[in-house]
Structures are given as structure tokens and as C-alpha cells.
Q: What sequence folds into this?
């Protein structure tokens, strides 16, 4: 935590923490007023709300976050990922492009681009509403 | 065409050519066996088929391709974009994350991440099938 990490390192470390369900460490990586926008859905504001959003998925099964590609430009980190969820009776994978903005060592914005129907199918969820 | 451009420059130039509907120039930027994968849909193989796919959208109205963010890592170029379509009676915008792989100065793979429902709504289209 004390060493100065690059934005790319911060994002990679955060994805590890998220994958392992270390929710108590989210505050190390997310600014208090961070924003998560899963583009097909409404934005989620604040690290606490983001943590809760991530917990929801983790409750359904074992999450995996595989970074296929990553490129950074200053404080901006663009990723291509496969997010997986293993449930007792099924396993699904979702292709995602995630964009992270880092400021002063913490993620302030996180935008995930994916198809909502693919996400619902991958994670065995019903459509919202 | 003769000067050596970086992968990022090639992608920016291609997006300009695409936006302006200069389809006759697609061959300068796309390898003959290039692949376009709009993630919610089946992949499109070959520069000719990609050109036809892009023409389809351009026939509907005036396209705009706005690159919000771009980062490159070697031959890989990750973008965050707003693709817009202006039609006589409506205008729509689609948030997209697009990933391009460049080899020997040409795009060989182009993967666009977006939500299909948002795309249909933005471009005034009916659902496929």
C-alpha cells in the first residue's frame, strides 16, 4: 500500500482483490466517491455502493476476473476481460471491456462495457424489472 | 500511406475514414482477413464483409465516431467511443469500447463491446431475427 504503484498496477491489483472477494480491501483501491457505471445499467455512486454491487455477484458463486489485454494512458487504464461465474450447477463467462480512471492512487471511475443479455445469461440471472 | 504510423495513429485514422464513409479506403487500414466482432453478434470475417457491415449503418444516416479515450500497448489499441447516428427524424448515440489489433500496419481484429438493446435504440433499428 505504501509504495507508489502505476495506474495499471493498481487496476490489476484491484481486479485480484475483487476476484478473491476481499471486499474489506475495496477502500484501498476505490476513492470514497468512486463511480461504477455498467453501461447498460444506471451508474452506482460511492465505494460502499460499489462494494455492495460486487458482493451481490460474489454471493451467486465463484467469480473469476481474467484480464486479456490492458493498456494505460496516464491515469486511464483500459482493459479487455473475461468475467466468469461458477455456480453449483452452471458456469458462465462474460466478455467485458472495462475502463478505469485513477487519481492519487485510487480508482475514481470504472466503466464496464458489455451486453446486458449476455451478462444475464452468463450469470444465470433474470432480467432487471 | 507510405510513412510508418503507430498502431494508435492507424486506429485514429481508420475511425476518421469510417466516420466520413470513405469505404473505398478501408483496404488501406484493414487486413484482407481482418475480423470484426461486435460482441453481442456473430463475428464478421474479411475486410469486404466488414466494409459491407459498416456501409449498412452509414446508409441509415450520418455517422459520427468520437474517440473519448485511447490507450495502446504494442500492437493493441483500446478505445472508448461514442458512435452517433443522425437520421432525418432522430439522432442516437451509443457508448462503445473498441479494441483493435494491428499487425504490419493494418487492423487484423476489431472487437466492439456494447449493449445490443442500447445499439438498437440508438440507431432506430429493430431487433435482429
A:
Amino acid at each position: 500500500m505504501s509504495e507508489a504503484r502505476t495506474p495499471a498496477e493498481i487496476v490489476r491489483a484491484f481486479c485480484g482483490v475483487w476476484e478473491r472477494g476481499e471486499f474489506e480491501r475495496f477502500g484501498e483501491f476505490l476513492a470514497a466517491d468512486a463511480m461504477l457505471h455498467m453501461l447498460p445499467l444506471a451508474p452506482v455512486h460511492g465505494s460502499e455502493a460499489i462494494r455492495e454491487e460486487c458482493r451481490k455477484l460474489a454471493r451467486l458463486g465463484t467469480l473469476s476476473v481474467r484480464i486479456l489485454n490492458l493498456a494505460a494512458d496516464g491515469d486511464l487504464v483500459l482493459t479487455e476481460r473475461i468475467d466468469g461465474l461458477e455456480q453449483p450447477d452452471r458456469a458462465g463467462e462474460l466478455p467485458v471491456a472495462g475502463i478505469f480512471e485513477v487519481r492519487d492512487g485510487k480508482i475514481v471511475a470504472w466503466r464496464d462495457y458489455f451486453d446486458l443479455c449476455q451478462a444475464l445469461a452468463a450469470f444465470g440471472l433474470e432480467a432487471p424489472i
Q: What stands out?
A: The two ends of chain A are 40 Å apart (CA to CA). The helical segments of chain A are 7-19, 26-29, 47-60, 116-123. Chain A has a mean pLDDT of 95.
